[in-house]
Amino acid sequence: MKIREIAEKLGLKHVCGNLDEEVKYGFTCDLLSEVLGRAKPGTLWITVQTHVNIVAVATVVGIKGIVLCNGHEYDKETVEKAVQSGIVLLKSEENSFLVSGKIYELGLR
Amino acid sequence: MNVQDALLEKLQEFFRDSKVYEFMNRDVICVTPDKTLLHVKEIMRIKRISGVPVVDDGKRVIGIVSLEDIIKALEGNYIRESVEKRMTKNVVSLHETDTLQDALKAFEKYGYGRFPVVDDENKLVGIVTKHDIIYFLLTKLGLIYLHDRRMEEALERSTSLVTGEVLERGKADFVFHIDYFDVNKIGIGAARLKRFLTEKGLDEELVRRVAIATYEAEANVVIHSGSDGYIYCLLDDEKITVRVEDRGKGIENIELAMKEGYSTAPDHIRELGFGAGMGLPNMKRYSDRMVIISEVGKGVVVELMFFRREKDENKGDR
Predict the structure, then answer these.
(1) Which of B136, B164, B198 is the last residue of a domain?
(2) Residue B290 sits in which domain range?
(3) Is the domain of B170 the same as that of B275?
(4) What letter does residue B223 receive in the DSSP assignment?
(5) Is the pLDDT of residue A14 over 80?
(6) What's the distance, CA B43 to chain centroid?
(7) CA–CA gap between residue B236 and residue B233 (Å, rounded)
(8) How many angstroms away from the CA of B272 is the closest CA of chain A?
(9) Of A30, A45, B18, B164, which residue is 20 to 30 A from B91 by alpha carbon distance?
């Protein structure tokens, strides 16, 4: 599924990145090592972490996009780094549970 | 001489005066003489041990039943008889204050696989196998071999590392200097290595495994070492070797550090989502071989090996 479709259906705010990237899986977690250890390539990552390291984690794991929840703001460096690394950044006012549930309903696993 | 014995001989000179109580296994399983051999056989099977000391009411050692005794009992058809009747009665024990050298002599002289350890009153306080001694020596050296439980192979490798057979860093295909203390920079090295390997045309999933494990090692250097560090990567036809080194604080307890969920990361680091206690477990999970050498105050060396096979058959759900 294209990230664009998810972003539109959930009304997510687009911060940066190419919305035509394809994702197949979702992963909700705020502990980086858990994400490193378990998330699959082609994942959309739902988190509340805002610092630049989430981009590094996404890059090594092969995560295509990140949805930041609870209305948090990405750090400035995070956005800069994501632009460089080609990671899609999205934002939501809702909490991780609601966002995850909605994305699950759209068919991501 | 097998690898185990060769290693023991080499190491014992440094630790010959260590006392038996330092390395014995205190969690010793024993039986009373009224039990049957069949009962002992079941204990051995369930606990996966090859010898069980027999003690009286005062916990004094009065005999021992070995795997050999059990085999004889099965052949002789007396497995249902009592331990008392069939146990080996002239038990050779070690005293808890005997030295490592004494213990090794006992192994050599009697050829038994294990010795019960007793105190001044001849009460059972532990048991010693060669495995316990090797484990003790390796721990003493700050050197623990993980991932591959096949003892022989692990020991073989440790021998070569002990004798100084190290990677030729000068010939590394990729070198990265971790010269920052800022957690926000963690991953620069891993991402560069990922790009380097991808450009070499290596398998995507293999590159991913290398990148993730390297990320964790890099994070450890930045968060825990208090020093700078280096990432070296060497390629050959069969494998990718990644070595991450620092000269910082070292790991106090590697065994604990290997436990999932165990972390020494400070709170401000944890708030950033680090310190989940999954760093070393993740490295182990994604590599095919992993070696950690560490000494407190002298730094950590993590060596990770990834095999370049066509398909990952035994790597589960990754």
Answers:
(1) B136
(2) 142-307
(3) yes
(4) I
(5) yes
(6) 25
(7) 10
(8) 7
(9) B18
Q: What is the mean pLDDT of chain A?
A: 95
pLDDT of residue B133: 86
Shortest distance between the Cα of B82 and any Cα of chain A, in A, equals 52
- Tell if the CB–CB gap between B186 and A85 is shorter than 8 Å: no
Q: Give the three-state DSSP class for A41.
A: coil
State pLDDT tens for residues B248-306. 888 888 888 888 888 888 888 888 888 888 889 899 899 988 888 877 777 888 888 89
The pLDDT, as a whole number, for residue A23 is 97
Note the ipTM here.
0.83
Q: Which residues of B touch A58 (CB under 8 A)?
A: none
- The CA distance from B309 to the nearest CA of chain A, in Å, is 20
Query: Closest Cα to residue A27, out of A100, A88, A87?
Result: A100
The CATH H-level (homologous superfamily) assignment of domain A3-105 is HprK N-terminal domain-like (3.40.1390.20)
List of chain B residues whose C-beta atoms are within 8 Å of the C-beta of residue A80: none
Cβ–Cβ below 8 Å for B208 and A32: no
Whole-prediction pTM: 0.59
For residue B124, pLDDT beyond 90? yes
Q: Which residues of B touch A31 (CB under 8 A)?
A: 273, 276, 278
Considering only CB atoms, B272 lies closest to which of A40, A51, A62, namely A51
pLDDT band with cut points at 50, 70 and 90 for residue A73:
very high
**In chain B, which residue ranges form alpha helices assigned H by DSSP?**
3-15, 20-23, 37-47, 67-75, 83-86, 100-110, 130-140, 151-162, 188-199, 204-220, 254-258, 267-270, 279-286
